[in-house]
Write a structure and sequence with these properties.
The chain is α+β, with helices and mostly antiparallel strands. It is built from 1 helix and 2 strands. The chain has one domain. A hairpin with a 2-residue loop joins strand 1 and strand 2. The longest helix is centred in the middle third of the chain and has 57 residues.
Length: about 80
Amino acid sequence: MRGVFSHNIEIEENINNLNERLLKCYDKLRVLDNMIELASQSLRTYFDKVIRSNIDRYFQFDFLLENGKCSCYCSGTL
């Protein structure tokens, strides 16, 4: 009977150890996910700035308001 009881305690300890390791892995994954999200936001911001800079450099946009209507004219070359 003692053998079964000590075996159950060993199994419970193993389960507890595995749960602790799983929680640590979960925390690491959450940190990694946050880092990926920040990197994605940074890349979006960078590319938005690059694209806007290139559009402003190569194209001229003119807006004209006549008779209550707005018209947009684009001129430029790549």
